[in-house]
Specification:
49% strand; mainly beta; single chain; three-stranded antiparallel beta sheet; Serpin_dom; protease inhibitor; serine-type endopeptidase inhibitor activity; Serpin_sf_1; 0% helix; 73 residues
């Protein structure tokens, strides 16, 4: 945090990282929302290109189980 402020002991108590993706015949649209406990959120769209097989999981925000598990070749 030294690049953000000169205040000693400054820390982030909560950090949010949310990924959203949409897969269709034309490809994948992927966005990320990043924020902290200050309430400020930043959203950016990221292109996600895979040139090999991958595994993905969809998990609910507040529960500890898998909603969707997938594999793409």
């Amino acid at each position: 945090m030294s690049d953000v402020s000169d205040t000693f002991g400054l820390h982030i108590s909560t950090f949010h990282f949310i990924n959203v993706f949409e897969i269709d015949e034309e490809g994948i649209e992927y966005s990320t929302v990043i924020g902290s406990s200050s309430g400020k959120m930043k959203q950016q769209v990221v292109d996600f290109n895979c040139n090999g097989p991958f595994l993905f999981l969809v998990l609910p925000e507040k529960h500890n189980f898998v909603l969707l598990l997938g594999f793409c070749r």
